[in-house]
Design a protein that fits this description.
By secondary structure, this protein is mostly helical. The protein has 5 helices and no strands.
């Protein structure tokens, strides 16, 4: 298989799994009053981190620079571990909630981890 086919397969798998998750979360989890600002901020932060990674990764794997070889996996594994913990703490469970209920929980400052079991009223 050529590189174009492999890239297409990778892109398909990425966007069918984790690639679209951030935009789904932005649309569903943010309070409706701040949804546009939240999406704009998240998109800008993602772009900045994307640029940083596109600059840093070639230096990490280059034999004349950091020469990390397979140890680059530890960098990405560490980032994934941090991301998992942050997600568990800050991404609320909002299954079956209306926008009004979400706004009430945000305004009463219910911790995101407790939003799934929070009883309104």
């Amino acid at each position: 298989m050529g590189p174009n086919i492999l890239h297409s397969i990778y892109a398909f798998v990425y966007f069918m799994t984790v690639g679209a998750v951030s935009f789904v979360l932005l649309g569903e989890v943010s309070t409706p009053l701040l949804r546009a600002k939240t999406t704009a901020l998240a998109t800008a932060v993602q772009a900045v981190f994307g640029i940083a990674m596109n600059v840093a990764v070639p230096y990490m794997v280059n034999p004349d620079e950091a020469n990390m070889k397979g140890k680059v996996g530890f960098v990405f594994g560490g980032c994934a571990a941090v991301g998992t913990i942050v997600s568990w703490v800050y991404i609320p469970e909002l299954k079956g909630r209306t926008f009004e209920e979400i706004d009430i929980m945000f305004s009463t400052r219910v911790p995101p981890r407790h939003m799934g079991s929070y009883q309104i009223g």
